[in-house]
Each structure stands twice: as structure tokens, then as C-alpha cells.
């Protein structure tokens, strides 16, 4: 047993004390109402644009010379790169390797000329924050130093979940003292959740999004996956709207309903943004949770996941840290079926092959294994029912075991035969109902180009991990104690 309680878990414990049931019901009513308003608004906007033959009139960030709107496309030379943090000591028998998240963050800072906006959960970029003396904190400490330097030179804005008393605040204090603008978002009060999103918007044209927290361990001791997109002001403008929503909530401390039109988007699962990523024709959109944070036009994160699954024809590969068909932090207990049911449905009705790669570490809840065994039992060779589950373990030396909240696969993505979905949420009900998260969905099925697509790169990452010695198949006899 670890003696340190990770900060994230402290927050989880706080949630658990809450009675979220009543609020959840109030929210779902509110969400239905909002969705109705959103649909009407979106339809009206679209009609107006068609009638007047022009793009959106209230584009809040006209940094792009183009006015991108429905049916129009973005001519930015967007360059997308898949990123990973591979924990110290992890080695694969595979040529699949991606640039590091650390390197991308350094690049983004060196590219920055006017602004850096960061949405974040918590900040522990130094050994001091975690009470450790580990040499692999160097990368995180470098990021913090560089960001503090830039905070005096350009506009640096940070939206962060309101830190509990117990959480170290040295990094935020340093950044504040260096000139950064910081707003705390009191998610606990707003939705009984947390701000779990992790993304960057730089100069309103480059973005980063992925699973890594602003934590030194996310760069060297935790397995992470993310993506950086350079020179892409149309996409950055859309992610900027999600940032502006957090920024707004950091000040107002109450959720507008409906959201002002400056937060609305034209890009969603039904009308994605058309652009060239690495010279490959692509359609992309950003989803967001919880639904109460979605302005008109924005696809809620859960709808995004369900629709990506619906669209898959031959396979769905999922790599997430936690997978639970429950409201993980609710009392009384509540079952939450949406994702689980969708997986069983597509496996049964359309013989889609489903693979889940879930993380296993010291703090894995035993109940998760029961639900995973249930999913893994949906397998029958004759009728082509084919759901398989594996547990991924990041091994730790005695010294690495001393690092709190580390040595775990923290990935949050899904890849199908059609698209890549790169998100920031664990897969249990809370993350789609109360918690703020976001995801990028990239569809390059129209591509004829020789360039590897994001989908094919992500698939290679999944296959590398799935077939490595770090993964163990879940069977009816699997016992967590023997694995992690
Ligand atoms: C995901 O779930 C685990 C276990 O509840 C939690 O520790 C972690 O903070 C969650 N969030 C992230 C960052 O994935
Ligand atoms: C930032 O510093 C100012 C004083 O310069 C202080 O009023 C404010 O509370 C600080 N904000 C945070 C988030 O620490
Ligand atoms: C972004 O565009 C600029 C100007 O065209 C170019 O110099 C730079 O190399 C591009 N960045 C990337 C990562 O492609
Ligand atoms: C991807 O794009 C194709 C058209 O190129 C479309 O038929 C399909 O529904 C899209 N998939 C998703 C998940 O958006
Ligand atoms: C790589 O291959 C070697 C030899 O087959 C094997 O011993 C080792 O466990 C493999 N490592 C991984 C991570 O799969």
C-alpha cells in the first residue's frame, strides 16, 4: 500500500462525500432543454448563413484571414503530430515511436509570440510539489521555468480547477508572480465535478490536447498520449472557444444558459471542419463535456464517443485508464450504461471487433475487473462476437514505486477503422456528466494521400501496446493481485 495519497485521489474522495444524485437529475433535464435551444439556434444560424451567403458573424478570434463557416474550408497548412510520454524504462519490440509531449511543449513555447492559453486540472511540475527527489522531474521543472519566463513577456492565461487546500500551489504562485493571468474554476460548486481538461492554445494558431496533466510525472513516469497541431488557426479558434468558456466560468462562477453566441460553434459531429492536416483532406471537430458547458453547436463528449462507435465498420480499439459502466463517485450507487451498451450493441448487431486496453495499477478498483470480465465474455468465434479486453501494467523498480501517482497507462483514446478520437476523460459516467473534458476527432477517410493518417498512426500505437508483454488478457480467472 502506498502511504501517499495522490492529489487526484484526494479530489476523488471529496467528490465521494457529495450527494450528486439530485443534481445529476436536475442537470439531465437542463441538458435536454439546452440541447433543444441549441438545435434551434444552430438551425437558425445555418439558415441565416445560407440566406446571406456568409460565415459566422460572431467569430471571436478572427486571427485567421479566412472566415471559415459551414460548407467552407480552412486553407491553413495545418501540421498534426501524434505525441507520447513513455515512462522511464519502458521498452517495446516495435518501430512505432512518436515525438514526446515534453518536446512538443518546449516547441510550443519557443513558437509563442503573443499568447499561451492553458486549460488544466492541477499543477505539480517540480520535485518540491510532490515531495520527491527524482532526477526525471527535470523535464517538468524546465517547462515551468520556461513558462514563467514567458509569463513576463506575453499573454499567458491559465484556467485551472480550484485547487483543494491540500494541493501544492507553488507552480501557480510562481506563474502568477511572473505575470501570468490565472483563473480558478470552481467545478465542485458548478457541477460537483472537476476541470479535468488538458490543452494548450498558442498564438491562436497552434494547439496541444491530450491526457498529460501539468505534472512532471506526466512527462517521464506516466504513459500519456496527445497531439499537437501547428499552424491551424481555424481549429485553434474553435478550441479557443472552449478555453474562453472556462475563462468565463472562472470569473462568473455560474453557468450561463444559454451560452452567449460568441461561444457557439459550427463544427460538430454532423458538420465537421474541413481542412488539410499534413496535406491530407480531413474533417475534424472538438467535443466537450459536461453538456452544460456546450454552447450551441458543440457535440457533447459522450455523443461524440457513441457516434464514433456507431460509425465503425470493422474495429474499435480503446485505450483508457479507467473503464466503468457506473457513476464512479455517486452515492447512492448508480449504474451508467451508455458506453457499455453501445459496445455490446455494435459487437452483436454488426460484428464489429472491439478491443479494450485498460490500465491496471495499485489503485485499480476490483469492481472494474468484474465489469471488464463481463465485457470480455461477449466472445463467440462461431457467431463472430468479438470483444476482447487486456490490462496494461507499467512495471516499476523499487525506486520508481516510491513516486506517488505514477507508473500507469493514462492514455485516453479510441481508434476505429475510420477515425481517431483523442480525449482527456476516464471512461465512467462522472466524466461525461459532471467533469469538464474535451476531445479531438479526426476523420481522414477521404484521404488518397501516401502520408500516414492520424488513424493509422494511432492504430499502430494501440497494436504495439496490445501485443506487448505489458498487456495481459482478461479472462474469467483473472486475479488483479497476480497482475498489478
Ligand atoms: C482517472 O481515474 C483515476 C482513478 O479514479 C484518477 O486517479 C485520475 O485522476 C482520473 N483522471 C485522470 C487524470 O485521468
Ligand atoms: C496573483 O497575484 C495577485 C497579486 O499580484 C493576487 O492578488 C492574486 O490573488 C494572485 N492570484 C493567484 C491565483 O494566486
Ligand atoms: C508554421 O508556418 C510557418 C510559416 O509559414 C513555418 O515557418 C513553420 O515551419 C510552420 N510550422 C510547422 C511546425 O510546420
Ligand atoms: C468520416 O467521414 C466520412 C466521409 O468521408 C463519413 O461518411 C463518416 O461518417 C465520418 N465518420 C465520423 C465518425 O465522423
Ligand atoms: C521483446 O521481445 C523479447 C524476445 O522475444 C521478449 O523477451 C520481451 O519480453 C519483449 N518485450 C516486450 C515489451 O514485449
From TrEMBL:
Where does the protein end up? Early endosome membrane; Late endosome membrane; Lysosome lumen
Organism phylogeny:
Eukaryota, Metazoa, Chordata, Craniata, Vertebrata
The UniProt record lists the PLD phosphodiesterase domain at 191-218, 405-431
Cross-referenced SMART domains, in alphabetical order? PLDc
Source organism: Scomber scombrus
This protein's GO CC annotations:
early endosome membrane; late endosome membrane; lysosomal lumen
This protein's major location comes to: membrane
User: Matching PANTHER family, A to Z?
Assistant: 5'-3' EXONUCLEASE PLD3, PHOSPHOLIPASE D - RELATED
Please give, as recorded in its UniProt entry, the membrane topology of this protein: Single-pass type II membrane protein
Q: Which residues cross the membrane?
A: 26-51
Q: Which InterPro entries match?
A: Diverse_PLD-related (IPR050874), PLDc_3 (IPR032803), PLipase_D/transphosphatidylase (IPR001736)
- Point out the signal peptide segment: none
Task: Identify the Pfam families for this entry.
Answer: PLDc_3 (PF13918)
Q: What is its EC number?
A: 3.1.16.1
- Catalyzed reaction equations: Exonucleolytic cleavage in the 5'- to 3'-direction to yield nucleoside 3'-phosphates
Q: Which family does it belong to?
A: Belongs to the phospholipase D family.
Q: Name one GO molecular function term.
A: exonuclease activity
Protein name per the record: 5'-3' exonuclease PLD3
Amino acid at each position: 500500500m502506498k502511504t501517499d495519497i495522490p492529489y487526484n485521489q484526494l479530489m476523488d474522495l471529496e467528490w465521494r462525500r457529495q450527494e450528486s444524485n439530485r443534481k445529476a437529475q436536475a442537470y439531465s433535464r437542463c441538458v435536454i432543454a439546452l440541447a433543444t435551444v441549441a438545435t434551434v439556434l444552430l438551425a437558425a444560424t445555418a439558415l441565416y448563413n445560407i440566406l446571406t451567403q456568409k460565415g459566422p458573424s460572431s467569430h471571436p478570434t478572427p486571427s485567421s484571414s479566412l472566415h471559415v463557416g459551414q460548407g467552407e474550408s480552412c486553407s491553413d497548412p495545418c501540421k498534426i503530430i501524434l505525441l507520447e510520454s513513455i515512462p522511464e524504462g519502458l521498452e517495446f519490440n516495435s518501430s512505432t515511436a512518436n515525438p514526446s509531449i515534453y518536446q512538443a511543449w518546449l516547441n510550443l513555447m519557443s513558437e509563442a509570440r503573443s499568447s499561451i492559453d492553458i486549460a488544466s486540472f492541477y499543477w505539480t511540475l517540480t520535485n518540491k510539489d510532490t515531495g520527491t527527489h527524482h532526477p526525471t522531474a527535470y523535464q517538468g521543472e524546465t517547462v515551468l521555468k520556461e513558462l514563467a519566463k514567458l509569463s513576463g513577456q506575453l499573454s499567458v492565461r491559465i484556467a485551472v480547477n480550484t485547487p483543494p487546500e491540500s494541493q501544492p500551489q507553488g507552480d501557480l504562485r510562481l506563474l502568477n508572480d511572473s505575470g501570468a493571468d490565472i483563473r480558478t474554476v470552481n467545478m465542485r460548486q458548478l457541477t460537483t465535478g472537476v476541470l479535468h481538461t488538458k490543452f494548450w492554445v498558442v498564438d491562436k494558431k497552434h494547439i496541444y490536447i491530450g491526457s498529460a496533466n501539468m505534472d512532471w510525472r506526466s512527462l517521464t513516469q506516466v504513459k500519456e498520449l496527445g497531439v499537437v497541431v501547428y499552424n491551424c488557426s481555424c481549429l485553434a479558434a474553435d478550441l479557443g472557444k472552449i478555453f474562453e468558456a472556462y475563462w468565463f466560468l472562472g470569473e462568473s462562477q455560474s453557468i450561463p444558459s444559454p451560452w452567449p453566441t460568441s461561444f457557439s460553434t459550427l463544427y460538430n459531429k454532423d458538420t465537421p471542419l474541413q481542412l488539410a492536416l499534413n496535406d491530407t483532406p480531413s474533417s475534424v471537430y472538438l467535443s466537450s463535456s459536461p453538456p452544460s458547458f456546450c454552447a450551441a453547436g458543440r457535440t457533447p463528449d459522450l455523443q461524440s464517443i457513441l457516434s464514433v462507435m456507431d460509425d465503425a465498420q470493422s474495429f474499435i480499439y480503446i485505450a483508457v485508464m479507467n473503464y466503468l459502466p457506473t457513476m464512479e463517485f455517486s452515492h447512492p450507487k448508480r449504474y451508467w450504461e451508455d458506453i457499455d451498451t453501445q459496445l455490446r450493441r455494435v459487437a452483436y448487431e454488426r460484428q464489429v471487433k472491439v478491443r479494450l486496453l485498460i490500465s491496471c495499477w495499485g489503485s485499480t478498483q476490483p469492481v472494474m475487473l468484474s465489469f471488464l470480465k463481463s465485457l470480455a465474455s461477449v466472445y463467440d468465434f462461431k457467431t463472430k462476437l468479438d470483444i476482447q479486453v487486456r490490462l496494461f501494467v507499467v512495471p516499476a523498480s523499487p525506486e520508481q514505486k516510491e513516486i506517488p501517482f505514477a507508473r500507469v497507462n493514462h492514455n485516453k483514446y479510441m481508434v476505429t477503422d475510420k477515425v481517431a478520437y483523442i480525449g482527456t476523460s476516464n471512461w465512467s459516467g462522472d466524466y461525461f456528466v459532471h467533469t469538464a473534458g474535451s476531445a479531438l476527432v479526426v476523420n481522414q477517410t477521404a484521404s488518397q494521400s501516401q502520408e500516414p493518417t492520424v488513424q493509422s498512426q494511432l492504430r499502430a500505437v494501440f497494436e504495439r501496446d496490445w501485443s506487448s508483454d505489458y498487456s495481459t488478457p482478461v479472462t474469467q480467472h483473472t486475479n488483479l493481485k497476480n497482475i498489478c
